[in-house]
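quick one, 125 residues, struct below
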Amino acid sequence: MPVGTRSVLELLALTAPQTVPRIAKTLLLSRQFVQRSVDYGVDQGFLEFQENPAHRRSRLVSVTVEGRTTIEGVLRREQEHFADARDQLTEDEISTCLHVLNIIRDQTDWRPATEGGGLAGNEFA
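---
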């Protein structure tokens, strides 16, 4: 499953049906990328469109039963892999990893690259 579709599927499985622009804003991704991800998810039977009572032209995207089953399986397998990895790491290694990830997060502008996002101060971006 493409990472974009997986992200949309997980978001919608944990929240409520949303419009493509709202999903894009929440995930900090371009609307076009989210639309392609949603279209793929619809084609695979993971996602579906619903009428939006608040806006006639902007339909809501929701998770199908198959999509919910699929994302639950993906999340379960990820948790199993994380548990296996955790058993191979010391507390100090985990702390160091979290420290590095926090620094990267703090130094990163999470806006989509198409909107100028990227590493803060990165002259190569």
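The chain has a mean pLDDT of 86.
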